[in-house]
Amino acid sequence: MDLAEFYEKVYDTVRLVPQGKVTSYGHIAALVGMPRHSRHVGAALKILHEDSDVPWQRIVSSTGVISSRGPGTTGAQRQAEALEAEGVHVETTRMGQFKVSFATNGWFPRTLQEAQQDAQ
Q1: Angle formed by the axes of helices 3-14 and 38-46, to 10°?
Q2: Are residues 45 and 9 in contact, defined by beta-carbon separation less than 8 angstroms?
Q3: Is the Cβ–Cβ distance between 56 and 45 less than 8 Å?
Q4: Which residues touch 12 (CB under 8 Å, ≥6 apart)?
Q5: Which of 6, 72, 83, 91 is deepest in the core (most CB within 10 A)?
Q6: Residue 109 belongs to domain with CATH number
Q7: Residues 59, 105: contact at Cβ < 8 Å?
Q8: Residue 66 domain boundaries
Q9: Is residue 38 assigned to a domain?
Q10: Strand runs (DSSP E) across the chain, as ranges?
Q11: Domain for residue 57, yes or no?
Q12: What average pLDDT does range 63-77 have in this prediction?
């Protein structure tokens, strides 16, 4: 699978994540058949245009922490606000990070086929 095909599979899979739910970069990577490529999932989402229909905000780290976009950026804050607008509770940790609960809002279908069936 080349990079463009991988990115398109990532976008198609992220579109399946229901509103009000979150999953991890690693879970998306596993669903598209590339379980060791969670960082590539992050890279694919990072280059999306602002007007994209891909709900990038629903993808977080494997611990539920919203990843920083680098020093001096507001990406984590924007992602937290977008999730809260969907009804996802976002807490602020003692370290000042934003975090979501997979127990409450997690979306972890076992297979891509299961995810596609759930979306119908």
Answers
A1: 80
A2: no
A3: yes
A4: none
A5: 83
A6: 1.10.10.10
A7: no
A8: 3-113
A9: yes
A10: 23-24, 59-60, 90-92, 98-100
A11: yes
A12: 81
Distance CA 80, CA 88 (A): 9
**AA letter at 21:** K
Q: pLDDT tens-digit profile of 14-68?
A: 999 999 999 999 999 999 999 999 999 999 999 999 899 999 999 999 999 998 7
Residue 72 is assigned to a structural domain of this protein: yes
Assigned token pair, 113: 């086929």
Rounded to two decimals, the pTM is 0.93
pLDDT per residue as tens digits for the range 94-117: 988 999 999 999 999 999 999 998
The SS3 call for residue 84 is helix
Total domain count for the chain? 1
Give the position of tokens 């669903």.
31
Place of tokens 């602002």: 50
CB 13 within 8 A of CB 112: yes
| Sole residue written with tokens 């398109």 | 8
Q: What is the rounded CA–CA span in Å between residue 8 and residue 1?
A: 11
Distance CA 33, CA 11 (A): 14
